[in-house]
Each structure stands twice: as structure tokens, then as C-alpha cells.
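Quick log. Single chain, no ligands specified.
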Amino acid sequence: MEKEKMKKMKTIEDEEDNEKDKEDEKNDNEEEINNKEINNNKKVNDNSKEKRKRNEEEIIEYRKSLNERCHSIYTLKEKSSNKEEIYKNAIEFHFIEIQKFRQKENIKKLQKKQYRWIKFLISPEAFIDSKKKVFQQAIKILIKLGNDRNFYPYYNQKEKDNRDYISAIDEGFKEGLEKAISKSKRKFDIKITLKMFKGDMKLDKVKEFNFLSENETDILYNFLYDKNTNRSINMLATNLNIDKNELKEILDSFEIHYNDKGKKRKT
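-> predicted structure:
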């Protein structure tokens, strides 16, 4: 009887132990599941943060590329397929922002054949010695327009439009832009005048073009042809109101000798 009782009690204890083990196992499983969910949520959050960071970096990079891009090309696509289909290589829209070609990161692009006319619009003086007939003709047209009084009203109106535009933007940028334009025009006027002199054009005829004032034209003429002049580049730069180094560059391009602090440049 006693044995039977002991056996029954042991069975009850075993059952209780089994129940406890099951409960512990259940708790362990629940804890593991919770940990997995926490880890998964953490991974999702980490991935979301990383994705947002990548998106922000891509947006910043895209905006930077837009600010630097001087030539954009767009095509037509069929909306549902997102493919160019029949318009591929048939229709393109080109947007060219000339001012952006002046930026440091874009200047080298002006050396490419496809952007020669952009370079001409920005720096026509660079094409004075061009052997290409089309640019020679373009320079002649510029000179002709510069001396066509009937063209002046249109030119002045365009200048006024440009001034109105410039006045609407930042004053500091305006000042820098106007200086750059004036500086470029000055170099162009001197190079054109020198080119006419080197082409054996008479002094009076050169003066008719009015690229330089009569006094400045006389100064440049005497510098070239007066044997009594000392050909001082410092004095010439002062009289022509141009930077000495820029004047050197111009004279060197024509192989014109000059005195620089007593040292004569030889042709």
C-alpha cells in the first residue's frame, strides 16, 4: 500500500516536472521569438536609415550635377513602357547654359569640337587667327556689325536688356560679371586693332573702325612703327588700360617684340 502511494506521488512529481519543463520551453521559445522580432525590427530600422542616408546623398549629388551641368539632352519616351521606341535617336532636346561653361569644372569642355561655337560666343577674340573660314567670316561679321550704325539700336537694346537682367541679381556678382565682360572686350579690341595694323591697313582706316579711341590707336601705331619709341610694355599697358601680363600674351601671339624692365623680347 505504501509502495503504491509512493509510486503515485512520484508519477505526480514527474508530471509536474514535465509541465514545468514545457512551460520553461514555451517561455524560452517566446523569448527567442521576441528577440528575433526585436532584431528584425532593428534591421528594418537600420536599413531604413541607411536607405534614407543613401537617398539624401543621391539627391545632394544630383543637385550638384545639375548645378554643374552645362549641356542637357532629353528624349521622348512612351509612358507605359518607359521606352523611347519610335523616337529613339530621332528627337532630342538640347538645353545649353552658356554661363555654366565659364565655371572652372566646365572650361575644358570648350576645347571640344562640338562646343566651338559656344567658345566663340564667350571669347570671339580667341578665333581672330583661326584658319577656319567659317570663323574668319564670323569675325568679319562682328567687325562689320560693330561699324554698322543701323545695327546700334538693336545692339543697345540688347545691352539694356542685359543690364536690366544683371541689375536684378546679386550686386557683387553683377560687378564681377561686368568687369569680366569689359576685360574680355578690351582684349578683343586691342587684338583686332593689331591684326588690322599687321595686315598693312592704314592708320586712318583703322581709326574708322573705332575699336579703340583715336588716342589709343595712335599710341598702338607708334608702338609698332615709331623707331624712336623704347617699346616699353609697362607704359603701353598703362596707356591702353590693360593688365601687363594680358598685354604680353597679346603681343606674343603676334610675335611683336617689346621692352620689359629693360629686357627686350626678341621676335
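The two ends are 135 Å apart (CA to CA).
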